[in-house]
Design a protein that fits this description.
By secondary structure, the chain is mainly beta. Among the domains are: about 50 residues, no CATH class; about 90 residues, no CATH class; about 45 residues; about 90 residues, no CATH class. Helices cover about 0% and strands about 40% of the residues. Strands 3, 4, 5, 6, 9, 12 and 15 form a seven-stranded mixed β-sheet that branches. Strand 30 and strand 31 form a beta hairpin. It is rod-shaped.
Length: about 550
């Protein structure tokens, strides 16, 4: 039996008011109800005495829960903020029906909602979220784990969208929109960068990225970027360029830089070297330049290859004039005492070299039979084998031809053979061509074996010289048939020896003129005092 007292709304219960309770007990094996009454002031002690078997402890602001024993109270996973406006769940929260939260929600573990989940403020979950009904959040939502939605996802306009729509940002919120591209299909392979096969299909590209190296056409890149051609017998290519309409010479079109990115200086100083592709004039010709840093922050050109295949070293902005154009010195280091420093080979396999033989330099020139025909050696053994040699002429008419420039009436030219220490007045052997600049005479030929200074004890000449009809010094003619003319201007003399304008003198009385008789006997003709001649066999 229950006795119910009613109070006006504005009236508070008094401590002396009596509360009637019903208690069920067993009497003689039968359950009977007994009525008890107590004052409201005794209610607290009654409740405590009735639950005196329950023990436990808890943490401030943590919602309590019964432990598995059922008689102890401990902390639950739900924590209420001091202000009472926020609830934090640190474990899994399972809701079998609808879940409505009017304030901010923070979940440190899994959230599973069997019905509708409605959040009127921010939502933060550090684990998986599963909502089997409608999920609505008016504030920001952060999910660190997976989100599974078995039903609708409502956008900021309250719409659940239609089939094929995507959720897109509107800056202030999100909204279901049609992407216009339809669904995307396709497959891919691990580490391959995808590409569009068509407007709605993706597949593998040829770009492979394993996280440390990138390969194009290869799945085993050996460098940060490894480019290979997948077609057999075709080399991989990298094209660096631009669309530049300028026709100016040396316009740069592409650049490959080698830089020290760890350097603390400015960006230009980080570039150590570079290769540039440049335009060569108004036509579609190219130049390849090689540039290195000099430490000042600038890259300077050190070598270039022009569109004709000419290589310039040190030309710096000027196209090379030959296949190899070096502005500066060239050094060729040959290991050991023998080896070629420079080797030139023509299209027919004929090679000529500048080489070293036992530590001395040799210039070896070969003929069209690939045999050394000319050798100039620094050890003194040089020779010419075959052909003609010209001095002062490019078209020698004889094996050796020397052409002396006609520049001075006093100049001496020709071939001079002299002993060590000889000067211009101490000629060992001189063959000299000399013209008469002041007259109309013909050129002359001089053969002079050794001339002693005029200040010496004697002065000897052995000279052949022609100078027109004028006799200059001593003159001797030697004809091709062995006849000798001395002092004559006429080359048509009959005798083996013809002396004109002079004598043949023997100043030794014991000597004379030796004549041979028909039988072969030799007779010496001498002259005695008074002019008498005598002939004696010798």
């Amino acid at each position: 039996m229950a006795i119910i007292y009613s109070y006006p709304k504005v009236t508070s219960p008094l401590a002396t008011d009596v509360l009637v309770l019903t208690d069920t007990t067993l009497t003689a094996g039968k359950r009977k109800n007994k009525t008890k009454s107590l004052a409201l002031s005794d209610l607290a002690s009654f409740v405590i005495s009735s639950t005196s078997a329950i023990t436990g402890s808890g943490t401030i602001n943590t919602i309590p829960m019964f432990t598995p024993t059922g008689v102890k109270i401990g902390d639950s996973i739900i924590t209420q903020a001091v202000s009472g406006q926020g609830v934090t769940v640190t474990g899994q929260l399972d809701v079998t029906e609808d879940f409505n939260v009017t304030g901010s929600t923070e979940l440190s573990d899994t959230l599973t909602v069997g019905g509708v989940a409605t959040f009127n403020a921010d939502v933060e979950c550090n684990n998986n979220v599963t909502v089997q009904g409608v999920f609505a959040a008016d504030g920001n939502s952060v999910f660190s784990g997976s989100v599974t939605i078995d039903e609708q996802l409502i956008d900021g306009t309250g719409s659940s969208g239609t089939a094929g729509q995507v959720l897109s940002s509107t800056v202030t919120g999100v909204e279901w929109i049609s992407d216009g591209g339809g669904s995307v299909t396709g497959t891919g392979t691990t580490n391959f960068v995808s590409k569009w096969l068509d407007s709605d299909t993706i597949q593998d590209s040829i770009i492979f990225d394993n996280g440390t190296k990138v390969g194009i056409g290869t799945t085993t890149p050996l460098a940060n970027l490894d480019v290979k051609e997948t077609t057999t017998d075709v080399a991989g290519q990298i094209i660096v360029g631009g669309s530049i309409a300028s026709s100016t010479d040396d316009t740069p079109f592409g650049k490959l830089c080698f830089a020290n990115t760890a350097a603390a200086n400015s960006q230009p100083n980080k570039i150590l070297a570079s290769i540039e592709g440049r335009k060569n004039g108004s036509s579609n010709r190219g130049i390849l330049t090689f540039n290195v840093a000099d430490g000042s922050g600038s890259n300077w050109e050190k070598m270039r290859i022009d569109s004709y295949g000419n290589v310039g070293i040190g030309t710096s902005g000027t196209n090379p004039a030959d296949k190899l154009h070096v502005q500066g010195t060239v050094r060729a280091v040959v290991p050991g005492s023998t080896g070629a420093a420079f080797n030139a080979i023509n299209a027919f396999g004929v090679s000529s070299t500048f080489r070293f033989e036992n530590n001395h330099a040799v210039l070896a020139l070969k003929n069209n039979s690939n045999v050394v025909a000319t050798k100039i050696s620094s050890d003194g053994f040089s020779w010419f084998d075959g052909g003609s040699v010209g001095f002062g002429t490019t078209t020698p008419a004889s094996p050796v031809e020397m052409v002396i420039p006609d520049t001075s009436s006093t100049s001496r030219g020709g071939l001079l053979l002299s002993e060590a220490g000889d000067s211009s007045t101490l000629d060992s052997v001189r063959v000299e061509y000399k013209s008469n600049k002041s007259g109309s005479g013909n050129p002359g030929l001089i053969f002079t074996p050794r001339s002693q200074p005029s200040s010496g004890v004697w002065e000897t000449f052995f000279r052949f010289k022609t100078n027109g009809g004028e006799l200059v010094g001593n003159k001797a003619n030697l004809t091709v048939d062995g006849r000798v003319g001395i002092g004559t201007t006429n080359d048509n003399f009959e005798s083996r020896l013809t002396v004109d304008g002079g004598d043949i003198e023997v100043d030794d009385s014991a000597s004379g003129l030796i004549l041979r008789s028909p039988d072969g006997t030799r007779y010496r003709v001498t002259v005695a005092n008074g002019g008498a001649l005598s002939a004696n066999a010798v």
